[in-house]
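Hi support team,

I submitted a single chain yesterday and got back a structure, but I'm not sure I'm reading the token output correctly. Could someone confirm the output below corresponds to the sequence I sent? I've pasted both exactly as they appear in my results page.

Thanks,
R.
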Amino acid sequence: MKILVIGATGTIGGAVADALAARNGRDGAHDILRAGRRSGPLRVDLTDTPSIDALLEATGPLDAIVCCAASGAMTPLTEPSDTEFWTGLDGKLIGQVNLVRRSLTHVRDGGSLTLTSGRFAEPVPGSSLGHLVNAGLDAFVHAAAVELPRGVRLNAVSPGWVRETLTTLGMDPAPGTPVADLARVYVNAVEGTSNGSTFTPPSTPSQPSR
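Hi R., thanks for writing in. Yes, this is the structure output for that exact sequence:
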């Protein structure tokens, strides 16, 4: 399969691209195209729809798209301006929705789209926008999957803490999921048959993805 991985320069995206590249599909080894916002062979800014269009034109027809470029900072409800608060919607929620809508003419029959949402164990200060974005993405995937044409599948992966990210932040890595284990969840979403589902790594605490 010809698979585009967006966010492939990040911790999760890089592991997903490597995991897919190491596997063989029905027609042999997967052909992995790696895209990032600031570096990599292909560039894309999910907050800019012309950038999404340019990326899809550059890649040509695809069998699958995996978006791992969805991250966001904790955003206090009352402190930032309206513009600053709603900026969090642009890349992770609206950006991924736009990616789905604009990619449908570029994904082959029976292909797949895999997005990234996230999880919190419970509400904490600054997490309200994150809850809104993640719940919105999961709801969008569940509802939009029935509208996709030509047998194209739509799913999401909802990571918790990633062990390697916790280590980078100087935090205890024990509660995190090894990124290689998380990558296998994305691989299963791409290579499986599920549609309209949100996948979570097994036996990991429900914490915000990074």
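A quick pointer for reading it: The chain has one domain: 2-199. Let us know if anything else looks off.

Best,
Support desk
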